[in-house]
């Protein structure tokens, strides 16, 4: 890309995306609330790989309800907060995955299969 074309592209990007309205949005709780809240779904996605014995059923249920409520809230406020909505979509999906793992392990008989795999065989 030639120097004048690169300069024009840079100026166009700055004019379109780094403007007064964007900076005003970035310095509000409408932006930083969801950004800081993304720790919950990131932890939930990371926890999908951990042992299902460690999953708390009541906490998973509470987080499913929490995310459902805030997904609704994100669409009810003006202006709609799509960043908050996206955060809670990710969390809802991860928590539902955790709930399925919890139910499989504790109530659908997978606990015995997992425990049998962990027991070492005794030599006779």
UniProtKB/TrEMBL annotation:
UniProt KW Transmembrane helix keyword: yes
Family annotation (Pfam families): MPC (PF03650)
Gene Ontology cellular component terms for the protein in this record: mitochondrial inner membrane
The keyword Repressor is assigned to this record: no
Keywords: Membrane, Mitochondrion, Mitochondrion inner membrane, Transmembrane, Transmembrane helix, Transport
Localisation: Mitochondrion inner membrane
Membrane topology type: Multi-pass membrane protein
Predominant location: mitochondrion
Annotated protein name in UniProt: Mitochondrial pyruvate carrier
UniProt source species: Lachancea fermentati (Zygosaccharomyces fermentati)
């Amino acid at each position: 890309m030639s120097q004048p074309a690169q300069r024009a592209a840079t100026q166009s990007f700055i004019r379109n995306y780094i403007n007064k309205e964007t900076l005003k949005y970035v310095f509000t709780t409408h932006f930083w609330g969801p950004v800081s809240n993304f720790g919950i779904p990131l932890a939930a996605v990371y926890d999908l790989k951990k042992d299902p014995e460690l999953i708390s059923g009541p906490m998973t249920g509470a987080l499913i309800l929490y995310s459902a409520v805030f997904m609704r809230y994100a669409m009810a406020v003006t202006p709609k907060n799509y960043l908050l909505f996206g955060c809670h979509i990710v969390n809802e999906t991860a928590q539902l995955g955790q709930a399925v793992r919890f139910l499989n392990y504790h109530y659908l008989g997978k606990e015995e299969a997992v425990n049998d795999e962990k027991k070492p065989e005794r030599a006779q």
